[in-house]
TrEMBL record:
Organism encoding this protein: Actinomadura meyerae
UniProt-listed Pfam families: TauE (PF01925)
Main location, first listed in the record: membrane
Its membrane topology: Multi-pass membrane protein
Keyword Oxidoreductase: no
Family: Belongs to the 4-toluene sulfonate uptake permease (TSUP) (TC 2.A.102) family.
Name recorded for this polypeptide: Probable membrane transporter protein
Positions of transmembrane segments: 38-60, 72-91, 97-115, 163-182, 188-206, 218-235
Keyword Transmembrane helix belongs to the record: yes
Length: 239
């Protein structure tokens, strides 16, 4: 059974991240990963991967009819291709340099897409976003922003449902690979399961915020979350 301090601190982080992701489409990993990594490193990455799998499933249960399946195959293919490169970066590049590099890439993508009137979504851009997502997700735990930027002008339900399916598939892949390689200790899975009540509470609490953002405010909120994740990653590795 996880210690009380993990349930209090990790639970608060999971609750906050779940509220953000349930409203915007991403966020549980961006909020919870730095806190759990810093204070409870032995429970990473399994604890966060468990909640990162369950929360998208809750979103899909509510909004699955809004999923845009067209093109997700290209994104998943890109993620598979980008994952080995992320593994190579972890081995070849110092952690702090890697964090700054990933944060800078995300900010550059944000700057380019935020000023565009339309971000094309085709097999090339979806594959590229998948490659970057697989690379940065494997290297730093932040893999959502590249895909989120492609869907920034879609409706709230479509953004949340499509990203949920993408995250669920990617997280399941990560858990499977870690488990097969013997890098998924039972204590990490148990810790993640212990955080699920906080995650589900965050999902339920986000209902009013979802409705508020869906009234034409989602894109700005999504861009703020993506930008904050990149800046936070850079600052965390510079300080």
């Amino acid at each position: 059974m996880p210690h009380l301090d993990f349930l209090l601190v990790g639970g608060l982080a999971a609750l906050t991240g779940a509220i953000v992701q349930s409203s915007v489409g991403l966020g549980v990993g961006l909020v919870a990963t730095p806190i759990v990594t810093m204070l409870f490193p032995s429970l990473m990455p399994g604890a966060i991967l468990v909640i990162a799998l369950v929360l998208p499933l809750a979103t899909l249960a509510q909004e699955i009819r809004h999923v845009e399946l067209r093109g997700l195959g290209w994104a998943f293919g890109g993620r598979l291709a980008g994952t080995p490169f992320g593994v190579w970066l972890v081995a070849a590049v110092p952690d702090r340099v890697l964090g700054v590099l990933v944060g800078t890439v995300v900010l550059a993508a944000l700057a380019v897409t935020a000023g565009s009137r339309d971000v094309p979504r085709n097999r090339r851009t979806l594959t590229a976003a998948g490659v970057v997502s697989g690379t940065t997700g494997t290297a730093s735990g932040i893999g959502g922003p590249p895909m989120a930027l492609l869907y920034q002008r879609e409706s709230g339900p479509r953004v949340r449902a499509t990203l949920a399916l993408y995250f669920a598939g990617g997280t399941l892949l990560s858990l499977t690979v870690l488990g097969a390689a013997g890098h998924l200790p039972v204590r990490q899975v148990v810790a993640g399961l212990a955080l699920l009540p906080f995650v589900l509470a965050g999902f339920l609490a986000a209902g009013p915020l979802r409705r508020y953002l869906d009234a034409g405010r989602l894109r700005l909120a999504l861009l703020i979350v993506v930008g904050a994740s990149a800046v936070g990653l850079i600052v965390r590795n510079l300080v």
